[in-house]
């Protein structure tokens, strides 16, 4: 299919024919520059708009197809440059912690979790509750054994039982 004689056709009709004849080539060119299908579609629209704005110049050009691909090239280069300017910088290791440090939702979540944990601890048997509360105060098995006047083995057994019971309560409720 060839382009209609430039002097006999309206610029809009000429552009439509030029677009239709080169649409596959434009798509291939854009695929090489942009992986995102939605962004490629946006680029096609930008290219078509630029074509429409240059309709009379394209129709008068000696090589309209070359003019079309110059527009494709310019729009694509602008897109790439814009994307680089807007590119997000990766966060360093401390940034996520700084973002949530004083976040009200984080504090609320922590309060809710603490409340749920305390409710679950209240459901434990008295012996398991006593052992787990001491462990939560960063006391180790020998210290807990000394406080409760139990053997270290008995403390470890109670701690395991308390943790198991606590996990079950937290997961399934009681």
What topology emerges from the helices and strands here?
Blueprint (H helix, E strand, L loop, with lengths): L10 H23 L3 H17 L1 H6 L3 H22 L9 H7 L2 H19 L3 H11 L4 H8 L3 H21 L2
Strand content: under 5%
Count the strands? 0
Multimeric status of the protein: single chain
Please state the average pLDDT score.
82
Unreliable spans are none
- What does the main sheet amount to? none
- The succession of helices and strands, N to C, reads HHHHHHHHH
Measure the end-to-end span. Answer: 77 Å
Q: What class, by secondary structure content? A: mainly alpha
- Rg, Å, rounded: 35 Å
> Fraction of residues in helices?
over 70%
Shape type:
rod-shaped
So how many helices?
Answer: 9
Describe the structure in your own words.
Helix content is 77%, strand content 0%. It is an all-alpha fold. It is rod-shaped.
Short description:
It is built from nine helices and no strands.
Features:
about 170 residues, mainly alpha, single chain
């Amino acid at each position: 299919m060839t382009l209609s004689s430039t002097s006999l056709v309206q610029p809009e009709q000429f552009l439509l024919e030029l677009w239709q004849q080169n649409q596959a080539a434009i798509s291939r060119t854009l695929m090489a520059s942009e992986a995102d299908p939605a962004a490629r579609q946006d680029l096609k629209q930008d290219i078509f708009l630029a074509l429409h704005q240059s309709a009379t110049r394209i129709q008068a050009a000696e090589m309209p197809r070359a003019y079309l691909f110059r527009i494709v090239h310019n729009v694509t280069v602008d897109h790439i440059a814009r994307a680089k300017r807007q590119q997000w910088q990766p966060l360093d290791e401390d940034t996520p912690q700084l973002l949530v440090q004083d976040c009200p939702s984080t504090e609320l979540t922590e309060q809710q979790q603490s409340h749920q944990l305390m409710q679950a601890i209240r459901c434990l048997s008295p012996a398991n509750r006593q052992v787990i509360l001491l462990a939560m105060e960063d006391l180790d098995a020998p210290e807990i054994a000394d406080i409760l006047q139990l053997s270290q083995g008995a403390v470890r057994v109670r701690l395991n039982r308390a943790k198991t019971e606590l996990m079950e309560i937290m997961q399934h409720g009681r």
